[in-house]
Predict the 3D structure of the following.
Amino acid sequence: MKNSNIKNSLIRKVSAAFLATMFAGCLSASALAQTAPWPSRPIKMVIPFGAGGGTDVIGRFLAQKLSEGLGQTVVVETRPGAGGSLGSAEVARAPADGYTILLGSSSTHGINPGMYAKLPYDPIEDFEPIGLIATNLFVMSVPKDSPVKTVADLVRLSQASPGQYDYASSGNGTTSHLAAALFVSMSGAKLTHIPYKSNVPGLTDLMAGRVAMMFDNITAMQRQISAGTIRPLATTGLKRTTVLNDVPTLDEAGVKGYDLRGWFCLLAPAGTPAEIVNRLNQELVRVIAMPEVAEKLVSLGADPETGTPQELKALIASEIVKYKNIIDLAGAKVE
C-alpha cells in the first residue's frame, strides 16, 4: 500500500510539472507572438463604397503609399452597401491586430449615426481613430445637355413641374443624399430622390440624362466634369474651391448659408494596440506631407489635412452632432 501511495504521489507531481511546463510554453509562445514585429503580413484596407468612387480613388492611392513605408502590401477591398455601413461593420468585427483598417468618411462616421435607427456599429466605441486624411467639398451637377443652366433654373423648373425632376445619390444616408436633401430643404426645389447602391451607377445615369441632378464629392465627379460629360452648377462651401474656381458656391447661387464639407479618415477596430495605431498614424502623417500626395489629393478635389488620433476622435464626435442637426432640418430618413 505504501509503495502504491508513493507511486501515485510521483505521478501527480510529474503530471503537475508537465502541465506547468506546457502552460509556461503556451505563455512564452503567446508572448513571442505579441512581440513579433508588426506588420509581418499584408494589411487589408476596407473601402465601404463602390469601386471607382471618390473614396475608392483616394483609398487606393493612399494604400500604395502606405505600403511603401510599412514594408507590407496594403490590400484594398471594397464592401459597398447601406451608406457605407456594411463595410464599416465588417471592420468593427475584425480582429484588433492591425491587419484590418477602414477608409472611413463623413458618411460612415458622421451621417450614419443620425440616419440609421439600428446602425450595426458604434462609430465611437467600435473603432480606434488613426487620423484624418483630407476634407473636400461636394459639387452639384447636371447632365451636359440639361436645359438647367443655373441653380435658380433647377429650383424654378422643378417647382413648376413637381415629380418631373429626380436627383441621384450614392445611397440612402450618404453625403451625396444628405447634401441634396439639405439643398431641397433650403431652396424649396421639388425633386424626387433616387438612391443607388453606390455613386458609380448614379453618376452613370446622370451622364446619360436619366436623372436631372446629383450631388457628390468633387473627387468622384472631377473626371466627368473635366471630360464634359456632366456640368457643375455649384459647390457646397462658403468659398470657391481652387479645383473648380469658375463654379459658384450654392451660397453665391442664392441658397444663402449653405455650407457642407466631407472628410476621409483611417480607423482600426477597437482594441487595436496603441503602438500599432501610433505607427499607422505616423505613416499616414508622413504620406500626407509628401508633395506628390498633396498634389494628387488637390487634383482630385480634396484638401490634404491630417492630425492625431485624438483629434480625429474629437472631430467624429462633433460631426455626429452637426450632421444630426442637418438630418433633422432636411427631414432625411433611411426607409
